[in-house]
Amino acid sequence: MRSGFTIVEVMLVVLILGVISLLAVPQYAKYQERTKIAQAKVDISGMQPLIAQYRLENRAYPATLADIGRAGMLDPWKNPYQYLDVSDIKLTKGQARKDKNLVPINSDYDLYSMGPDGQSVAPLTANPSRDDIVRANDGRFIGVASEY
Question: Which of 6, 55, 131, 133 could disulfide-link to 40, CB 3.0 to 4.6 Å?
Fold first, then answer.
């Protein structure tokens, strides 16, 4: 008598592996995206004390992230972090990030990642901005713009 697998048994194993793959791959992709969002939050949180230290030493917010040694720092999607001093609203009125009521979300500075799509506009309610990782309420909120 010969030992081995029949073609039906092999096909059944391949089918089961295919179903498991169909279920596992999307979950892994979601896990990777959550990890990138968490990393962007950590990066933004880590830049806040550097900006605060700069302000204490210079009595003004930095003009760019280069002033705090973070020039060219990339988010997890390989896009540069965005920074804008909005403490003088007269100079930055149209550029400041805004909530659903078109009110600026910060009174000191905007610091954010443009998210997975690499696109962003000032109102957080606009489609290109919904996936951004933003700092809002002067640092009391750091997270996905659609959750703000």
Answer: 133
Residue 104 located in a structural domain: yes
Q: Is the dihedral of CA 28, 29, 33, 39 positive or negative?
A: positive
Residue with tokens 């009174």: 107
Task: Report how far Cα 117 is from the mean position of its chain's Cα atoms.
Answer: 10
At 93 the pLDDT is 63
Residue 1 lies in a domain: no
User: Taking the model in full, what pTM does it have?
Assistant: 0.82
For residue 88, count CB atoms less than 10 angstroms from its CB and return exposed for 0-12, middle for 13-18, buried for 19 or more: exposed
Question: Is 2 part of a structural domain of the chain?
Answer: no
Distance (Å) of CA 148 to CA 17, 54, 68, 97, 98? 40, 27, 27, 12, 11
Total length of the chain: 148
Residue of 81 and 8 predicted with greater confidence: 81
CATH number, residue 130: 3.30.700.10
Q: Measured on CA atoms in the order 83, 93, 140, 131, is the torsion positive or negative? A: negative
